[in-house]
Amino acid sequence: MFDWRWEFVWQILPRLLEATGNTLLAAGFGYVIALVLGLVFALAQRSHFKPLTFATRETVEFIRSTPLVLQIFFVFYVGPQFGIMLSPWTAGMIAIGLHYASYLSEVYRAGIDSVPKGQWEAAMSLSLGPVRTYSKIIIPQAIPTAFAGMGNYLVGIFKDTPMLSVIGVAELMHTANSIGSEYYRFLEPYTMVGIIFLLISLPTASLLRRTEDRIRKKIGLRSR
Amino acid sequence: MSYVEFLTEFGPRLVDGTITTAQQTILAAAVAILIAVAAGLMRLSHNRLIYGAATVYIEIFRGTSLLVQLYWIFFVLPLFGLTLDKFTAGFMAVGMNLGAYGAELVRGGILSVPKGQWEAALALNMSPAKRMIRIIFPQAILNMLPPWGNLLIELLKGTALVALISVTDLMFEAKQINGSTFLSAQVFGTALIIYYLMARCLITPFMRWLERIMARKLGRI
To answer: How many domains does chain B have?
Structure first.
């Protein structure tokens, strides 16, 4: 029979909250890596150098179709085989950053494709170079379209951080596991982890939805 | 140890794991489809209670991690008197999680059927159930098959997590072999390729085939 013990909840709550900080840190770091690397992937797929386009597309496909947890293991264990020691944090950030970069590259791609052709032609007729065309003309207009997808993957990366526990990153799930095995009580730690995730991801998702509506209104698109 | 030697020694275990992964995927997909259709239809209900129940379910399962849900189902549910063996807990967790995502696809697919189809069914005096089964749902299926293809790949990837509750799937075998041999690049690399092939050479072509069949049945080709 289950018995929920509040005093146990209060006892473990400080540890869980500390771990929540780590979870947010991991999600934040991972997301920044994914944002930057995703843009690199997206631009590489638009390159005129065909082998690069092909290689990037296949890599993105491959990363997207294989489990993140296996990729985390791969990055963490394959390094040492070749003499590169990675800390769990570094390996985790590389794996999660790469995984989400491949998702975000698709989001960027859709965003860039949504910019009307006239904008490219206008930039060309003003003889702007590729760097200024992208940074001043195309990307600012691609962001409103891409925003929804980018927001979804921000929440997604947050929800996938528990997988980092498998290589020993001290985030929420890892802490809940160690609390569970220390006290032989799993009800409170696992339930609290679920509640903490809900309390962060639901408000974030609704905030993102409202921001998206605001952005869409600002550039004169219909809100969804 | 060369790669060929590696494969001859550990290949059979990886194949066993792949079979378990395939079983988990098929069972989880069945659970996900059942839940998605039920919750998706409930989200279209005008009854506040039915709508609310489906919304709560979807928000809980989409708002937390699959890994958290898996551990909760496997370690906490027994405290409520419901003990599932690890194999069942594995595919149930994956199916319930992806079912919550699928529910929105079902809802969207049904809403995308043109209004004239609903009106025509009404004009023919069909009962609501008959209208849904005979007219609306078949067209909705065709609309939502492409995103379901992506969802099934997510589901296949999700099953890798059941290794963490010791279901002996591909991920689990890879982890075990790595633990005893430290041939990390070979074993994890092979496992990654197997997952990739399952997604690209089984799920994607299967969904394309299904799309063609459905389109032909509805006379769209």
So the answer is: 1
